[in-house]
Automatic annotation (TrEMBL):
<keyword id="KW-0012">Acyltransferase</keyword>
<dbReference type="InterPro" id="IPR050858">
    <property type="entry name" value="Mal-CoA-ACP_Trans/PKS_FabD"/>
</dbReference>
<dbReference type="GO" id="GO:0006633">
    <property type="term" value="P:fatty acid biosynthetic process"/>
</dbReference>
<keyword id="KW-0808">Transferase</keyword>
<dbReference type="InterPro" id="IPR014043">
    <property type="entry name" value="Acyl_transferase_dom"/>
</dbReference>
<dbReference type="GO" id="GO:0005829">
    <property type="term" value="C:cytosol"/>
</dbReference>
<protein>
    <recommendedName>
        <fullName>[acyl-carrier-protein] S-malonyltransferase</fullName>
        <ecNumber>2.3.1.39</ecNumber>
    </recommendedName>
</protein>
<feature type="domain" description="Malonyl-CoA:ACP transacylase (MAT)">
    <location>
        <begin position="5"/>
        <end position="289"/>
    </location>
</feature>
<dbReference type="InterPro" id="IPR016035">
    <property type="entry name" value="Acyl_Trfase/lysoPLipase"/>
</dbReference>
<dbReference type="InterPro" id="IPR001227">
    <property type="entry name" value="Ac_transferase_dom_sf"/>
</dbReference>
<dbReference type="GO" id="GO:0004314">
    <property type="term" value="F:[acyl-carrier-protein] S-malonyltransferase activity"/>
</dbReference>
Length: 313
């Protein structure tokens, strides 16, 4: 997800329902609305340490409220990749909104890992589509699969993100043609890998205090090709999110298995993630996008459910 300032501002200006949503978030977090919109991440800060995650979640919830309250557009299922999975579960009613923002505020306070074995990083690598990542990384210490982003180019390859110590990633990359493995300079954390266990440990008391509910609509997991339908499955999703690899094919495949007819990608998101889906997808971030979503619902003859939720990525 994109954490650039300004996300959600246009809808906030137009819709009282969005203004109400943001005011509640400001009350829960102690961060005023203008700061939510405008504050930038400081150099060296990770995504979780800035306002970006709060801004993204607020934008998604605000858009979902506009679609539901103003136009009666509510989904039959939700999903989300990485951080978006937590927001998606909240939209499905599996987590109280206030609890989500309590968790996000707590996430900003995570201390560095006790054992400092050097800087962490994330790297991008294209591999043949049928390559088993377990085999690829079997004998590679301190390098882990963080995300499978699915097919790229002509479909003969897929893009994966690897997380690990920067030195280990660079050593692993030396075995490929020059430039094949790109180690990012923008991320200093090995997302969705065992190196983030300190985050899970730090958040466990907060998660233990949270109440999880059976979601009102299925939550399609980004960790396996599975629809989550119980409170315990959602709790497990939250617990595993920092350390387990995520997969775009699992997430989209689950939606396809569930018979999805139209996808709405809410808020500042990597919209291209859904381009390979077998169903049409509409990005909803601005007032114009809301109209496009309404048009798509009617053009495709979608029968709207009566349950309030949303699709987050």
């Amino acid at each position: 997800m994109n954490d650039q300032p300004g996300a959600g501002a246009e809808l906030y200006e137009l819709f009282p329902s969005v203004q109400h949503t943001y005011q509640r978030i400001a009350d829960w977090t102690g961060i005023d609305v203008q700061r939510i919109f405008e504050e930038e991440r400081q150099p060296g800060q990770e995504h979780r340490q800035g306002i970006g995650a709060i801004r993204q979640a607020a934008a998604v919830l605000g858009i979902a409220d506009v679609l539901a309250e103003e136009y009666g557009i509510t989904p039959a299922a939700v999903c989300g990749l990485s951080f978006g999975a937590l927001v998606g579960a909240t939209l499905a009613g599996a987590v109280e909104r206030q609890d989500l923002f309590t968790l996000l505020m707590r996430l900003r306070e995570v201390p560095p890992p006790a054992a400092d074995n050097g800087p962490q990083a994330v790297a991008m690598l294209r591999i043949p589509y049928d390559t088993a990542t377990d085999d690829l990384l079997a004998d590679v210490p301190d390098v882990y699969l963080s995300a499978d982003l699915g097919k790229v180019g002509t479909g003969q390859e897929r893009m994966v993100l690897l997380g690990g110590y920067r030195s280990a990633l660079q050593e692993f990359g030396a075995g490929f043609p020059a430039g094949a493995l790109h180690v990012s300079d923008d991320h200093g954390a090995a997302f969705h890998s065992p190196l983030q266990q300190h985050i899970s440990d730090f958040l466990e008391p907060t998660l233990e205090a949270m109440t999880f509910h059976d979601p009102r609509v299925p939550v399609h997991s980004c960790m396996e090709r599975k629809a989550l339908t119980t409170a315990e499955e959602i709790r497990d999703l939250f617990r595993r999110n920092p350390t387990a690899p995520v997969s775009v094919p699992h997430m989209i495949g689950g939606l396809e298995d569930g018979g999805t007819e139209l996808g709405l990608v809410l808020g500042p998101a990597a919209f291209g993630t859904f381009q390979s889906a077998a169903f049409p997808v509409v990005h909803v971030e601005s007032p114009d996008h809301v109209f496009e979503a309404m048009t798509a619902v009617y053009d495709f003859g979608i029968e709207l459910p009566s349950t309030e939720a949303g699709v987050a990525q």
